[in-house]
Amino acid sequence: MRCLDQSNQQGRADRADPRNQTKQSPCLAALPALLIFLNIPLAATGGIVALLVRRMPFSISAGVGFIALFGIAVLNGIVLLTYIRELRQKGLPIEVAIEEGAETRLRPVLMTALVASLGFIPMAVSH
Length: 127
Known about the structure:
By secondary structure, the chain is mostly helical. The chain has a domain at 38-125. Helices cover 82% and strands 0% of the residues. It is built from six helices and no strands. It has helices at 2-16, 26-37, 39-54, 60-89, 94-119, 121-125. Helix 4 (60-89) packs antiparallel against helix 5. The chain is elongated and about 50 Å long.
């Protein structure tokens, strides 16, 4: 919490000055990485539920699928957050940037996940 409080105290006047746009606290610099890596537990939960629904044991094939699933989750997070960051740099408010970024990048994120998932169907049904 201390990192966020420090950034709020230093931030409001500094944000108006374009020369100070690159200055930010170390905690805020790590926030996008934290958001991206928070996708991994959610992806793992979905993978475990899928294994339970299909009544499949955790095997080597499932482990390879989980590794691919984690990679897809991280990639999709990077795609989305990069675009939101670009919109923020263009001057959009955070709420508008998030909404527009999610609407604009929904199709690329879904296509990436769908293509990778379809590629692993033969491995999933071979067991």
